[in-house]
Amino acid sequence: MESAVDTAQKKNRSGVVDRGGSWLTPRRRRRLAAWGPVLTLLLLMLVLTLLNSKFATAANLKTVANQSAIPLVLGVGLAMVILLGAIDLSIEGVMVAAMFSIALLAANNVNDNDLGVLAILIGLGIGASFGLANGLVNAYLRIPSFMVTFGTWFVGIGVAQKLLGRQPPRIDLEARSWVIEQRFGIQQMFYIALVVVVLGAVVLRFTRLGRHIYAIGGNEELAAQSGVRVRRVKVTVFALAGMLSGLAGAFALGRAGVADVTASQGRLFTTIAGVVLGGTLLSGGRGGVLQSSVGIVIMIVLRNGMILAGVDPFLQDAAEGGIVIAAVIAMNWSSRAKLRVVA
Amino acid sequence: MLVLLVGGVSLLEPNFLNAASLRTLAEQFPLIFMLALGQMTVILLGRIDLSNAAVASFAAIVMAKWIPDFGVVGVLAVLAITTLIGVAHGWLHVRAQTASFMITLGGLGVWSGLALFVSEGRSFGVDPGFASRLFDRTFGIPNAAIFAIAIAAFYAYALDNTKFGRRLYAVGNGQRAASMSGVHAERVVIAGFALSGFFSGLAGLVLISWLEIASPTTANALLLPAIAAVILGGTAITGGVGGVGRTLVGALMIAVLRVGLDVAGIETSIQPIIFGILAVISVATTIDRARLPVIK
Amino acid sequence: MTDMSAVLAVRDLVKEYPGTVALNDVTLELRAGEVLGLIGENGAGKSTLLKIVTGVEQPSSGEVLINGRATKLRGVGDANAIGIGMVFQEQSLIPNLTIAENLFLGREKALTSFGIIRRFERRKLAREALDRVGIDLDPKTVVEDLSFVQRQMVEIAKALLIGESSDHPPILLLDEPTSVLEGGDLERLFSLLDKLRSEIAVIFISHRLDEVLQVSDRVYVLRDGEVVAERAPSETSEHDLHLLMVGAEHSDDYFVSERQRTEFDAVRLRVDNLLVEGLKEPISFKLHGGEVVAFVGTEGSGIEGVAKGVVGILDRASGEIAVDGKTADIRLPSDSAALGIGYIPSERKTEGVLLSLSVRENLTLAYLDEFATRFVVSRKREKAVTREWIDRLRVKTPGVEVPMRSLSGGNQQKVVLAKWLLSDRLRVLVVVTPTRGLDVGAKVDVYDVIRDAAERGVAVLLLADTLEEAIGLSNRIMVFRDGRQTASFNAPPDKKPAPLDLVPWMV
């Protein structure tokens, strides 16, 4: 008994609050966070293979890959924001705003525009501007990110609705080929998503920006004292996340061929749940893009499993909400402390 | 500010102050107001409930299904259920010490999903049955709405004068200090979420008695306006400051704005843009930054 | 005239807080190549001085000179930038980053090509920095995996790195660096200071006077916000320094000793086998009605844990608590409050008062039940009781409905005390540093209130701000060191022990 109190005391003094039991040292926790999601994914795939013969077929796995592209891209952006300790709830809104912008600028059936690649770049720019606004308001007006991005979520949807006009813009096949053209049976956007994931991982791991993101997530005040330009990093990260939401919008447009205000519905849940399941903590500073990507694939596989099992799609949505809650609670469990106040 | 807004809208659009639009206003307002009151309770505690509009949708659907068979008892049962939903959100939030926006965001997914599931994704007409009185109108206003106003008056009194109300403000102003003064802060927070659930249930009731149609998604669009109403009224998201009176003003402003925009012929499509920006601006002006050392 | 070799000096420094003067005309200097000891009791002004030197607080008047130049420090960042490194009790390393990342955080520019950090080069530089402080650690190690002393060494290495970039020797501020070190770790720190002594300038703050005498070249003694002595270790002793720290003794009536009780009521609070975070062995004690028992000990002695364990702020590993002979199940402060145990926290602004609520709302919060019939609170009754207590404790306030924010610290503290005293259900009062930051007049008022409580039969568990206060107020003193009780003293009004009697049991 005495020694237990002793170690608890030492830990407390050394600034590490660890209530998850003494075996869960920070090092073990990091290792668990890194490999736990991978194991979970493998286990999940094994279970689904055993339960449903349709799961482990090439066709189904290709579907899973195709479905992963958009969430993976969104996940890279959200993971960076969450690593700061902030959140971006606006991804669905930004996604559809970019989707409609691109649809109306590329070759489409509503107007005579045909800007080609430029349309996509403008779409990314629109996404980045939304993110920039999020970051500026969060960092300079000092408003919690969940509130700011909650606002821009709806602003984005409003912009999409405004652009909708009388009929949903449909783009020409040519303008969407970069997304849906297949390589090795999988749509090209999946490979683009993989590149984005790798780039995200490289930025986080090897660049100054990336390490400053971790520093801010670890302890914002100390980071600022050490000379990290906190506000600039925040604005940059939100802008990047916005740009990636724009890219997700471009993917969604390419896949469907037609812009749709509801195209992004439910993306936020899949992405948050995936990022958090991947071991990126909402409190910031822990986790990474690779782990989060694994978490996102878990969510996609789960959804695929539910579809194969014939679960009502509305129930699937409800289940994802439940998974968000469960994942967030589970990952946050060890940081609980007596009389701690969390808003 | 409210007077200015009404004045402004009626100047720009003389049609605004006619009977028809005033009636629309009277019908729009109670729904927003009920959602706003629930949201206000949670915001006074420094928390937020992103699920309350979804819970209202869910309540509307279940009430619509139960009223034909169980009448008023069905309504009361649904109110009990939504209160319990609030308790569950609050309990998970304080137990797991996980940000309330996150828990209730998950709740938003769960309850809107279930509302769609129960209704099979369709809107349907409501058969008032025994509960028809709730659907009657006095001077054109649904009884449920009048009922809602009465509840709000009672709630205003309660927040100001009961032990619970006082503890709610104490926790919202400083949870640690309140705890150290012997307030069971976690219980107060859970009760706050329970009230949010209860008001969502009432909002569901107002919704079906107003439209006489149950739709699984109608209330969802009101999440942001309701939050905007609370904050616009002057309740800070940092907690502890605000009240029913301010929320009444805020909800009226939002209702006037919504009806005003409609009357002025501004497309509904850009309304989310207006409310999104409005919410952020009002947060910016009311937030107590001194209480947040680091803003994430 | 400031000595040319002074790397850091403060001149005529005054820091006033509302209602109190924390620093009064302090002048001192730190020379290159020396270790400067800084000692003083709690509230003597050490931490205020540090806050000013690190830019956390701005002086009311006076100036800070770095290398002879008057310098305005606007924050820790500024202090860092001009070569002041600090090792505080709270860690200043970011736990989820590696040692190398921490050492160069914010200054990676020179180590970056095209946005990519040159990691191998940084690792090499980090290893050199670690070598200088003589620890053999892999720079890739994540900081949260380090032990406390390893972290401290890394912090020193970082402080030295920061200092190197300036035109003067690095300035190192060590605030209680030894409070959690023992044996070999302590020796390592001291030998490191010896090794670096010639190239740096160090301010060393500690409550362990033997250590201060061991490592310092000069010692400044602070008391009540003033420098009362400057001594060389060779010409002074621990005993001498203690006397200087405590100063002339206050007269007995300062602590209202004539009202101290000598006969007590029945046992109010019984604590058996209490073990909480901070204690190394379980303790038991009894508090009688009307008795004031002081718990004394330095940082890390565990007394704060005792107070928090009793009121349910900390979880108990073991321990049974009984109030008026009845076993009490205390898990949260709301439980202890319901049993008649009041708590006066040391963090008044965040734990004691609700600054935006009115005096009335603050005063009635703890025993709201007593103002309510069923659910509804009677505002009339609240106002009457609030006015009564404002008069009784001479609280200076423009009214009962003004926000707590508008009261001075001393008056706020009186409201905090009144919040518990107003009820007859109050049995035990747990009081933690009730006079911290208050001026002399307010202190005496607070002492008077504590005497009132004892007179009524309330048992008082006191963690005093100073040793003198503990002795002056209490009937009995329990002394703690490193999580264990080491001694117990009786302190009747006519035969008070002297501070120096207690000190040997504390350090």
Structure description:
The complex is a heterotrimer of chains A (343), B (296) and C (507). Chain A is an all-alpha fold. Chain A has helices at 2-13, 26-51, 58-83, 91-105, 117-140, 145-164, 173-180, 188-206, 208-218, 220-225, 230-256, 267-277, 289-308, 313-332; strands at residues 182-183, 186-187. Chain A has a single domain (37-333), classed as Orthogonal Bundle (ABC transporter involved in vitamin B12 uptake, BtuC). Chain A has 14 helices and 2 strands. Residues 1-21 of chain A have low confidence and may be disordered. Chain B has one domain (19-287): ABC transporter involved in vitamin B12 uptake, BtuC, CATH 1.10.3470. Helices cover 72% and strands 3% of the residues of chain B. Chain B has helices at 2-12, 19-44, 52-70, 72-96, 100-119, 132-135, 143-161, 163-173, 175-180, 185-211, 223-232, 244-263, 271-286; strands at 124-125, 137-138, 141-142, 213-214. In chain B, the strands form 2 sheets. A two-stranded antiparallel sheet of chain B has the order 1-4. In chain B, helix 4 runs antiparallel to helix 10 (185-211). The mean pLDDT of chain B is 87. Chain C is of the alpha/beta class and 507 residues long. In chain C, the strands form 6 sheets. Chain C has a 6-stranded mixed β-sheet with strand order 6-9-10-3-11-12. A 6-stranded mixed β-sheet of chain C has the order 18-21-22-15-23-24, sandwiched between helices. Classes of the chains: A mainly alpha (343), B mainly alpha (296), C alpha/beta (507). Chains A and B meet through helix 6, helix 12 and helix 14 of A and helix 4, helix 5, helix 9 and helix 13 of B.
